[in-house]
Amino acid sequence: MLDTSFAIHPKLLNSTYTDIGKLLKAEKKETDFLFQSEFGFVRVSFYTEDTVRVTMNPAGYPSFDSSFALIKEPQNINVKMTDEEDKMMIAASRISVAIRQKRSYSNTQS
């Protein structure tokens, strides 16, 4: 599979890449995976086995209260979070998300 993510290949979008620093905390809460870094917060939510939403906010965990594009709620599907040496992998049966970081964090699941 060709990796076309702008986080890894920022020139693909002709835009600047925002470095949010070291990953400090990773946790799962209900249908969301939450990541706190030095300079931002990331929320990863799975809607189906092949649909995922990734949002970032520098001030706090992103809320989902203002999207006109999404009409579905995140689902509690079988998703596995794997802590690897240079990244955190979150995978459903048909799609996966890699959070690549130099880390200094705690990993909790609730």
Estimated helix fraction: under 10%
Strand order of the largest sheet: 4-3-2-1-8
What does the radius of gyration come to? 14 Å
Shape designation: globular
What would the average pLDDT be, to the nearest integer? 76
Overall strand count = 8
**Unreliable residue stretches:** 1-10
Largest sheet: 5 strands, mixed
Percent strand equals 35-45%
Summing up helix and strand content along with how strands pair, one would put the structural category as mainly beta
State the order of secondary-structure elements, H for helix, E for strand. Answer: EEEEEEEE
Report the span from N to C terminus.
32 Å
Number of helices: 0
What would you say about this model in short?
With about 110 residues, the protein is mainly β. It has strands spanning about 25-30, 30-35, 40-50, 50-55, 80-85, 85-90, 95-100, 105-110.
Q: What would you note in describing this structure?
A:
With 110 residues, this protein is mainly β. Helices cover 0% and strands 45% of the residues. It is built from no helices and eight strands. The chain has a five-stranded mixed beta sheet, with no helix packed on it. Strands 5-6-7 form a three-stranded antiparallel beta sheet, with no helix packed on it. It starts with 22 loop residues before the first strand and ends with a strand. The N terminus is likely disordered.
What topology emerges from the helices and strands here?
Blueprint (H helix, E strand, L loop, with lengths): L22 E7 L2 E6 L3 E8 L2 E7 L22 E4 L3 E5 L4 E5 L2 E7 L1
Parallel strand pairs: 1-8
Antiparallel strand pairs: 1-2, 2-3, 3-4, 5-6, 6-7
